Amino acid sequence: MGGNRLGKIFQVTTFGSSHGKAIGAVIDGCPAGLPLDANDIQRELDRRRPGTSEITTPRKEEDKVEILSGTFQGKTDGTPIAAIVYNKDVDPSAYESIKYKPRPGHGDYGWISRYGHYDYRGGGRGSGRVTIGHVIGGAIAKKLLETFNIRIIGHVTQIGRIKAKRIDPKRIEEHTLENPVRCADEKAAEEMIKLILEAKEKGDSVGGIVEIIVSGAPAGLGEPVFSKLDADIAHALMGIGAVKGVEIGLGFKVAEYNASEINDEYYIREGRIRTLTNNSGGIIGGISNGMPIIARIAVKPTPSISLPQRTVNLKSMKETTIRIKGRHDPCICPRIVPVAEASVAIIIADHMIRAGFIHPCKIKT
Ligand SMILES: Cc1cc2nc3c(=O)[nH]c(=O)nc-3n(C[C@H](O)[C@H](O)[C@H](O)COP(=O)(O)O)c2cc1C
Ligand SMILES: C=C(O[C@@H]1CC(C(=O)O)=C[C@@H](OP(=O)(O)O)[C@H]1O)C(=O)O
């Protein structure tokens, strides 16, 4: 199949599917000497886990992770780290009657066109559940980055047309930790939850926007051509199911301004070069400039909905309709937050090693 790997030196390869035996990741290129145990990964997986509130899929999974290799006496030893989560609440019954009917908005038709032999149960490897692998890789990347005081935090900024007020990035974590919609603006969060529940009640779904902020990254990460830091971040984020747009900094809004209005002007504070504004989202010419790195993703409404929709029967080659049953997220945004953080963490960890900020073999702080 190919295409299951992210990162060049810090490489994360994921495997597994929604209704198969297990899902996991193999991380190659993590330097030796990083303290790591299952709890470091579990903490992140718990933030992604399904079945935790009325605004997530009711599929009940513990998502308990087991580290199979790559650590010795509580630290990474430079060998491939393999970690696995077994699928427990597997129930493909809802997919039996629709196996020849591609779901509008989901990956079914594309996968059948490309591979022919296709695991139709829950989209197989096309399921959002495979993002367990992203989160495993990202948890290790985050742990590595924390050693260098680099932190990555995501939050929901919009659901449907409801927009959150801007909040001090330092306060996002405390405000989103206990909040099921992962929005730091408490008033907007309440309205968002209401909107998600209304859509769910109707058998429909809603989309939104998630922002990811990297703080503490040094200037000098990235490459000037092709493997630009912004290009690699966009690649990683677009690799998550349901993501239809990526913005860095001001993003699509740059079209509305003159350069004199949005160029980030430089100044010096306590011997450090900074910029007055951060419209470039911390990346200039493909390389980080030491300001916070800011990416935003547009997440589409969950494709599997129970309202009737038009589709085709690929066996009889006749037009037909579909009503999707089963267990689905009425909105993907809250659960995509840890996945997006993980994807960005993998790219930043990879570039930290590539640019020489982290030794590729052993941790030297
Ligand atoms: C965390 C997460 C959870 C998801 N949950 C669902 C779901 O419950 N039902 C569904 O139809 N799609 C869900 N998706 C979205 C599909 O996986 C995605 O739309 C599908 O793979 C098609 O890919 P595309 O939207 O990128 O074109 C989820 C995605 C993610 C990342
Ligand atoms: C189980 C998860 O999300 C699943 C993502 C998903 C999809 O089509 O993407 C469809 C549903 O799967 P199933 O029909 O197999 O229950 C969701 O529950 C998970 O993320 O852990």
Automatic annotation (TrEMBL):
Keyword tags: Amino-acid biosynthesis, Aromatic amino acid biosynthesis, FAD, Flavoprotein, FMN, Lyase, NADP
UniProt superkingdom: Archaea
Pfam families per UniProt: Chorismate_synt
Listed pathway(s): Metabolic intermediate biosynthesis; chorismate biosynthesis; chorismate from D-erythrose 4-phosphate and phosphoenolpyruvate: step 7/7
Needed cofactors: FMNH2
Coiled coil segments of this chain: none
EC number: 4.2.3.5
Positions that bind NADP(+): R48
Reactions it catalyzes: 5-O-(1-carboxyvinyl)-3-phosphoshikimate = chorismate + phosphate
SUPFAM superfamilies the record matches: Chorismate synthase, AroC
Entry function: This reaction introduces a second double bond into the aromatic ring system.
Record-linked NCBIfam families: aroC, PRK05382.1
Family of this protein: Belongs to the chorismate synthase family.
Protein's recorded name: Chorismate synthase
